[in-house]
Amino acid sequence: MTAPEHPGPVLLFDGECGLCQRVVRLLLRLDRGARLRFAPLQGPAAQAFLRTHGLPAADFDSLVFVPDWARRDSAEFKLRTAGAIAALQVCGGAGRVLAGGLAVFPTAWRDAGYRL
User: Fold this and answer.
1) Which of 91, 63, 90 is nearest to 77 (CA)?
2) Distances from the Cα of 21 to the Cαs of 70, 82, 93, 105, 106, in angstroms?
3) Phi/psi zone of residue 76: left (φ > 0), alpha (ψ -120 to 50 degrees), beta?
4) What is the model's pLDDT at position 3?
């Protein structure tokens, strides 16, 4: 995974979660333009982001999509399935199609499925 020291979108993920790692591998395959970067929630950059925004720093059951890491002090981010959908949209192509398919379901339903 790449350290998020660049402007542009970053997906923070649970580095110890098998499902999260599979999602990251899928996103890497879909992101042919290499626009998206990744960082584990357990790492120092993600931990600083979580603390800055009042998010639980020990609760790693989420994905956090940060649309522009250069503006990470802004409160603009998406959690769980909304974050996954935003990451898929950044990938474009098939990722955008998958994002559209997921977005038709209400957030509460998507997030309940994610927690399972």
Assistant:
1) 63
2) 24, 17, 21, 23, 24
3) beta
4) 47
- From start to end of the chain, where are the E strands? 10-13, 37-40, 64-66, 78-79
CB 15 within 8 A of CB 22: no
Q: Which residues of the chain have pLDDT under 50?
A: 1-3
Tokens of 48: 């600083």
Query: Can you tell me the distance from the alpha carbon of 103 to that of 17, in angstroms, rounded to the nearest whole number?
Result: 23
Q: What is the pLDDT of residue 100?
A: 85
Under 8 Å between Cβ of 28 and 52: no
Angle at 47 between CA 43 and CA 48, to 5 degrees: 120
In this prediction the pTM is 0.87
Kindly report the number of other CB atoms within 10 A of residue 53's CB atom: 15
Q: Which residue reads 């790693």 in tokens?
A: 60
